[in-house]
Amino acid sequence: MDGVSSSDAVSAKLSSGDWRVEPADSHVRFHARAMFGLAAVHGRFESFDGTLHVDESGHVTGELTIEASSIRTGIGLRDWHLRRKDFFHAAEHPRLTFSLDGLEPDGEAHVVTGTLRIRDATLPVRARATVTADSSAIRILARFEVDHDAAGLGWAKPGMVPKSVQADVDLKLVPA
């Protein structure tokens, strides 16, 4: 993947076949401003897995599954609270799932479309992404907002929890 520029990536055709996420070289992170915008909250999910399928026509589908209990923000008490019923309710809803419906070139980037499922909420996602590819790997980097209330993560004290969280996904996929 080194040496593939983003402009080359847009024009490059993704190799058809099945691909899997390489967790050691991938990241699912988030960040937000909490406490009236004064505190930066950065976090990640440590356990996730995913697949990607590119058909002969170049249409891309896939799925990313994230273990809710693997959330880490660097503060144990906050992580414990995020796993509880107020937020992810990991005991009842152990996984967040993103279903990829499409990955289409758009100028110098790509557009990712799909559905994010958190708890019982299903959220449409449309995000710009950078995609690089060669015959041995595909890298997809995307950033998008997740509306806290729409995701069913309704616990909030005014000013303490932001309306949305920025999700940053950096996935390296290798042939399955």
Overview of this protein structure:
With about 180 residues, the chain is mainly beta. The protein has one domain: Lipid/polyisoprenoid-binding, YceI-like (Lipocalin), CATH 2.40.128. About 10% of the residues lie in helices and about 55% in strands. It has an 8-stranded antiparallel β-barrel with strand order 1-4-5-7-8-9-10-11. The longest helix has 8 residues, at about 75-85. The two termini are about 15 Å apart.
Provide the fold topology:
Blueprint: H1 6-11, E1 17-21, E2 27-34, E3 39-45, E4 48-54, E5 60-67, E6 71-72, H2 76-83, E7 95-106, E8 109-118, E9 121-133, E10 138-147, E11 164-175
Antiparallel strand pairs: 1-4, 1-11, 2-3, 2-11, 3-6, 4-5, 5-7, 7-8, 8-9, 9-10, 10-11
